[in-house]
Write a structure and sequence with these properties.
The chain is mainly α and 130 residues long. The chain is built from 5 helices and no strands.
Length: 130
């Protein structure tokens, strides 16, 4: 793989979840296509994009900062899921599955951030565990 982030499990999971979000938004009503659908899609994409962008930074603190942005975007997705459920455009089953998946992803991203306490770790070594 040519880029560091491609080895990270959290990035791969974020890519998969972004695809799932994209699929459910296709069923949103027309009045939500450019409101909630766009917002949740951008937030879901941002999770993976921030992991990728941060991984190519020059320092560990920079990567950790972008992992923080990634967590924030994931939280935004969860909040959008609540809005969609409240507006009766996201089914309970989809909400429950995606909520659980994002909860797990957030934990994994936070675990990745804590792995950097060991100064000798590199992103390639972390890819095995995260």
């Amino acid at each position: 793989m040519a880029f560091k982030f491609e080895d990270l499990r959290v990035w791969k999971i974020a890519i998969e979840l972004s695809g799932e979000i994209n699929q459910i938004t296709k069923a949103f009503p027309l009045e939500e296509k450019f409101v909630l659908a766009t917002q949740i899609q951008r937030a879901a994409d941002s999770v993976a994009l921030n992991i990728a962008e941060g991984s190519t930074g020059q320092s560990t603190p920079e990567f950790k900062k972008f992992l923080g942005y990634s967590v924030r975007s994931a939280i935004e997705v969860v909040s959008c899921l609540y809005l969609g459920k409240k507006r009766n455009i996201i089914r309970e089953e989809d909400f429950t599955k995606l909520y659980s998946s994002y909860e797990d992803l957030i934990k994994k991203i936070q675990a990745l951030k804590t792995q950097f306490k060991n100064e000798n770790l590199t992103i390639h070594k972390l890819a095995v565990v995260c």
